[in-house]
Amino acid sequence: MDKLITTGLVNSAYGSSSRLQGGPGQLAGAAGDADKVNFAELVRDAAQGSMQTIREAEQVQQAGMVGENVSAQQVVEATLEMETTLRLAVSVRDRLVEAYQQIMQMPI
């Protein structure tokens, strides 16, 4: 999970929330913020991070199968990390699909 949401994104979100002033939706200096992260970038970065984690885990698994210098513990840890990443990605995907379906059912 720490691979999916980076520290930079968390700091950016915290910084944005700490600049909230007055009513909802008003950011202090919103026009001049160069470090904004939009939703599409967040999803893209999360997907790329997930794929990178899965690829690295597969490499460790393959190295363990062919007998390279990889311990059984490293293979198990990589497999568990890959499984956790995949479960999180599927959960996020399901939530996005559910939100899309709810939006499509809204009356206009």
TrEMBL record:
GO (cellular component) term, any one: bacterial-type flagellum basal body
Recorded family membership: Belongs to the FliE family.
Record GO terms (molecular function): cytoskeletal motor activity; structural molecule activity
Main location: other
Keywords, ordered alphabetically: Bacterial flagellum, Cell projection, Cilium, Flagellum
Gene Ontology biological process terms in this record: bacterial-type flagellum-dependent cell motility
Gene transcribed to yield this protein: fliE
InterPro entries with a match to the protein in the record: FliE
Pfam families named in the record: FliE
Name of this chain's protein: Flagellar hook-basal body complex protein FliE
Compartment(s) where it occurs, according to its Swiss-Prot or TrEMBL record: Bacterial flagellum basal body
